[in-house]
Amino acid sequence: MKSLHLIGLIALAIAPMYGQPINGPIYWSPVATPPDCSDLNYPQPVAITNASGTTIGYSCYVSGTFVWFASGGMWGTTIRVAAPATNPIGVGYTFYDTTGAALNLDTTVNNSSSSLTSANEVDFALAANQPTELELLGATSAAPKYSSTATGSVYAQFYCPDEVTCEAVLPQLLYSALPADPWLVSVPMVFDGYASTTWSAVGINDSTHVMSLVICNEDVSATTYNVYVYDSSTGALVATGTTPSVPPEPLLADGSYGEGGTYGALLSDIKFSAPLPTGVIKVLIDGGTLYSGVVMLQVTGLPGGTQTAATSLQVAYDSSPTTATSAVPIRRKSARRFRVPPTPKTVFPALPK
Known about the structure:
The chain is mainly β. The chain has helices spanning 2-14, 163-168; strands spanning 17-19, 29-30, 46-49, 55-71, 76-82, 89-97, 105-109, 112-119, 121-126, 131-139, 150-160, 172-177, 181-187, 190-191, 198-205, 209-217, 226-230, 237-242, 262-266, 279-286, 292-301, 307-312, 316-317. The strands form 4 sheets. Strands 1, 2, 3, 4, 6, 9, 11 and 14 form an 8-stranded mixed sheet that branches.
């Protein structure tokens, strides 16, 4: 990962510029007093320009990945976020398919049909305390009925006039399968700098409880992931499976990294070395030395029928069973990579009324 860190620091020194009309929420600090962003993963503030390219201020910056969305068909996905009370923020969402390629989605803001957008990226500014919900309707190519389900990941970026505001930004992504299933599931974002090589969660596997997992490759090499299952009686390893190879983050022409691929599956879809035990199990996902982001879900209901409940599971940092001989090392923030959009942004508009 040393080369990753080096390229990230080079990109930070370049300080890309983003545009914003000065009549909207001001989510930057003045040119004369750039903000101190040293407590964030990206300590170098980003220059903010007006439409003519003149620098009008600087923003701190945080970012991360929602490792899976599902929109269209029976599935719905929304992303919610609010600006903290301290200051306005700038928000950018970029959409990718499961291979990490750019994907055009149709979206609306706050359930307003007048805000319909068809694009790979959605940008807007929020005033202090202003909440918003972005609904992902489905792939633009599937409009207007969106009868097929689009899946992939969402890369999220947040710009703030100071690091305190950036540290308070906490977005969430929600899945639903209404009206067929009466539940709503919220999942967190994996912030850049907080990816891990190994993750685990505890769930239930039986005739009415189903577990699923999603892995997003947060590294520069394609890799398969080992999936280990442990029983509740002694903690013994009872089954091992392997995922297909997941595409890596591509190195872009500007020296930054794009989005890695994603793999999502029911636990029962993975070919294991032995039948899975019934009851409470621990599932551990191991990427060796390579970083990833992981989400695991638990769904309850009758097979082939209505799923009566669903929840995201607490996913924890863990250690590989092949090397674990001591306590799990503490994960610390690091500028693992700096994600620069491929083209400059000239406008972060306010939300449509």
